[in-house]
Specification:
This protein is α+β, with helices and mostly antiparallel strands. The protein is built from 4 helices and 3 strands. Helix 3 crosses helix 4. The chain is extended and about 70 Å long.
Length: 117
Amino acid sequence: MTRKKTKVQEPQCPDYIHSLPKELADLLHQKQEDRYSKYEAFRYLMEKQAVRSLDDSDRKLVPFTVTITQLATDWKWHRHTVSAFLDDLQVLDVLSVGKTREGFDICFTALSFPSVA
């Protein structure tokens, strides 16, 4: 008598969107040893965008400039890994990346800020 192996199928997860307020990001933040996780690298970019946008009186999303070498050094990643990560975020339409003489202009496509009363 032989047993037939059956695979348990995982249900397909539908697409979803969830906002990530800074408080939730702080709660989920877990610093690894030295090297940044993808989450930490993403948060690093979001915070750079937020700080850059504070300089704009309307708090519009204003591109900020970085270099692949700078990010690789800050995150303790290889430059190729940084480039691939930025490419993945572009494909997901999370941010836009434009090459400049100084490096790359990065701007998030849908980052918003709470209204200040």
